[in-house]
Amino acid sequence: MTLYTLDHFIDGAERAPAEGHYTEGFDPRTGQTISRVALGNAEDMALAVAAAQRAFAAWRDMRPLARGRLLTQTALAIRAQARELATIESRETGKSTPQALGEIEGVAQYFELYGGLATALQGETIGLGAGYHSYTLREPYGVVGAILPWNAPLNQAGRACAPALAAGNTVVVKPSESTSGSVLALARLLIGCGVPAGVFNVVTGIGAEAGEALVRHPKVRKIAFTGSLRAGQQIGRIAADRVLPLTLELGGKSPDIVFADADLALAAPGVLKGFLTHAGQVCLSGTRILVERSIHDAFVAAMREAMASYRIGAADSTVGPMTTRAQYEKVQAYYAIARAEGAVAEVGGQLPDDPALAGGWFVSPTLYSGVDNSMRIAREEIFGPVACVIPFDDEAQAITIANDTEYGLAAGIWTCDLARAHRVAAQLDAGQIYVNEYMAGGVETPLGGYKMSGYGREKGLEALHHYTHVKCVTVRL
Ligand code: NAD
Fold it and tell me: Are residues 146 and 85 in the same domain?
């Protein structure tokens, strides 16, 4: 098979890596090598940051209406090329084409939303009495670095970069070395829409080299990081020395709480979707399913039955492969941990034995019962299609178990009691609360973590403010 090559995209053009080194890219459905991906280093990063720095003043000084129009045009171009982008995204991540198309529609909406909001970044006037005139300006940082994980690369690129660009920053993106293709396609598309060269640059490569070089570069003024807690902490240590503002979108171990008064016909498929979407490789996944004891056995039986109809496989089947070999191995390690902890595998708990899947990084959708919230499978992020069911006796206990985690990204509530929904939502320590539909929301709804799931917010109007700092000008008249 002919391998395709992914080079950096710097100052409006593709560019081979300074040292000429490449790593392999894989098809997760077969485990076969499909591409060569440029391994960026500090020299490549310096070139990209310099290009972004050169492009900054003109981009910042453009009338916001005109800047926003370029982003809105990008949204239209993304929609027009959605099929091609979805093919790249699906090939590299292993996700189904419908899933990829849904995420790419989200990317178009990020550019649409922030293109429209480019003019909404306004300051305030502050009353100081006669004799003074005081006002604030929201100014872009300059060069913003965006570091992305592999699970939804294009969507996360849009989520981080569209508001950064709308606010007048220029950007250098470091995608995951496993999934760089669609972000590079976006870079070409932005140029085609008239966004000036240097405004959006991509340096591919690994975190320890290209990623760290981006965080350490003195001209980078802000980092938007999406990824694991471990890498977020490493970046946070470097950023502390540089006093560098960060947005950290990290992991989760989110509770999905099913009360006995829920509409169970809605809850069972909703809870399943909450941890099986993209084979569980979603930070928001509801992987701790807390079920009121009176309905526990019936609910587990309903889940078992529904999961029996889930197909595992390539093409557009429901549950695709793990995107990376490391993730494939990690899920298997948690199957062993669950066995050692004495959890009961109601479904799955071992690799699928279908010979048609051989070579691909497929794991089985898995549901564990007999789980206590202190077990590792209830505390650690697995990032695969694996969830555990934990019973509770009353509302207070559900809230205690739900909040007993170092993470705080999302939480689901299933109930027909409106007062309970709001009461419980107010007491859960998480940035996203979903009532009667897990992962409800859109590009307009702010997203971010409590506790060790991170800080700062992406999406919505909120994110725009994270890409500017406030200057206050006070004049004695
Ligand atoms: P990861 O942390 O291993 O890598 C993420 C990115 O950071 C990659 O581009 C990687 O190369 C880079 N990186 C790693 N170490 C770095 C370092 N020291 N300095 C600079 N860059 C570095 O994460 P992953 O395995 O790619 O993604 C899975 C994780 O991402 C999960 O924990 C998941 O929950 C999280 N995630 C969070 C969100 C969110 O919005 N909160 C969304 C998607 C994924």
Answer: yes
